Amino acid sequence: MSPINIVILAAGKGTRMYSDKPKVLHALAGKPLVQHVLDCATSLQPRQICVVYGHGGEAVPQAMQQYGAKFVIQEPQLGTGHAVQQAMPHLADGSRTLVLYGDVPLIQHSTLHQMQQEGEGLVLLTVNLENPTGYGRIVRDLQGDVQCIVEEKDATAEQREIREVNTGILLAPTEMLRAWLSKLGNNNAQGEYYLTDIVEMAVQQGLTVHTVQPAHRWEVEGINNKIQLATLERVWQQNIATQMMAQGVTLADPARIDVRGNITCGRDVEIDVGCIFEGKVNLGNFVRVGAYSVIRNATIAQGTQIAAFSHIDDSEVGANCHIGPYARLRPGTKLHDDAHVGNFVEIKNSEIGIGSKANHLSYIGDSTVGSRVNIGAGTITCNYDGANKHRTIIEDDAFIGSDTQLVAPVKVGKGATIGAGSTITLDAPAGELTISRGRQTTIAGWQRPQKGKK
Ligand code: UD1
Ligand code: MG
Questions:
Q1: 38 CA distance to ligand 2 centroid (A)?
Q2: Quick one: CA torsion of 144, 145, 151, 154, rounded to 10 degrees?
């Protein structure tokens, strides 16, 4: 197979999105539409990718810098043929050029690969539709050979009956494409330079035009409004849910999971309804995720139970931990095996040792907590002095009484006990009870105040 170049058309304004953002930067599964296309394009290992953009200034090239693609502006936008023309100076001959669309995000590698295998001539991706309204029609002769593509607005009543339509995606030899494009005119119903007119030129030159059909209809669906965006989002999510279940994951409801990134799961993983996974998430064997949990860029080792409404972000969780309900692990959290983090406990940039517990209403920030530590309800690490952050160190087997403030930098020694309600500002020695509250007193005969007479 000859090497390929890829042109991605992304100059359309997206008027019907009613948004200040260029259409192709709207997100599907947490990723801009055009990035889906770029990822698929990259998977074909092309020589060059060229993105034709228009509306939204430099927003598109800026957002997609990491791809090393060539970005060319099309201004004004005079049609799909004119758009591809803008890319041609950047594409070398001795190759084929594949045209994709920044607003057709779910095109699959396998379909494009099949087009590449179809032969070295002109290859069109077409579909048959019950209702072909609005699309360019594939006109064939009596032998079934493709003759041309006619746009809806230029079609005769008879041609409008044709159900086979142009998806817009095509593959052409680069030299020929260059020559055809230079001959395009705009004498048609829309006064545009139609890319589709190259088909007739190819036929006149005696070339056979090949057609390929995608495996799924959704691969070639474009997005023009938020309704279509939501529809394709559901297609994507359904596909991921199906893949996960096929690999053995138990989903309480495949219609109520959202994956905006990559998730890998071990055996016997169970996920309840309403969970969102973002970035790179790895769930070990026997992990259970409770309803409405949000997990982003995290590794959860085997056997860990995450109860409902927990948030885990940029964290690493060991095996057999218990998390939540209503727990929040913020970036930089590392829980070692068998740790327990209960309701309304927030942990940030901290390490929690093996078997340690913080089960209720606590904030643990910038801390190193050893093994078998018990952190009582309402414990707060005061890690911020208004200007700088400081660390709290709690050594193995320490017991922190409820409602304790640990004013960092501070250290609680191995096996130390902190009495409930203490404000600890100095290091607490290992093995001792440290307490900072005043002694309890009872005032005999004290009376509650009475409400005064008006
Ligand atoms: C085009 C095809 C039609 C096909 C349909 C599939 C042509 C002439 N017609 O029609 O046969 O059935 O797509 O959806 O090609 N774009 C630019 N610059 C331009 C014009 C368009 O970048 O000057 C981009 C748009 O952003 C869009 C794509 O090209 O992503 C298609 O443009 P659009 O105007 O929607 O094409 P259709 O008229 O629908
Ligand atoms: Mg148009």
A1: 22
A2: -80
Q: State if residue 284 touches ligand 1 by the CB under 6 angstroms criterion.
A: no
Does the Cβ of 353 fall within 6 Å of ligand 1?
no
With H, G, I as helix, E, B as strand and everything else as coil, classify residue 405.
strand
43 Cα: distance to centroid of ligand 1 (angstroms): 24
Which contacts (CB < 8 Å, 24+ apart) does range 347-354 have? 353/396, 354/318
Q: What percentage of residues in the chain have a pLDDT greater than 70?
A: 100
pLDDT tens-digit map of 380-417 = 999 999 999 999 999 999 999 999 999 999 999 999 99
Integer distance in angstroms from the first to the last C-alpha of the chain?
97
pLDDT in tens, 56-91: 879 999 999 999 999 999 999 999 999 999 999 999
* Global model pTM greater than 0.90: yes
Question: Is the CB–ligand 1 distance for residue 82 below 6 Å?
Answer: yes
Query: Which residue(s) pair with 52 in the sheet?
Result: 9, 72
| CB 4 within 8 Å of CB 116 | yes
Q: Do residues 68 and 86 make contact, with C-beta atoms less than 8 angstroms apart?
A: no
Residue type, 205: Q
Domains (ranges, CATH) in the chain?
A: 4-220 (3.90.550.10), 226-434 (2.160.10.10)
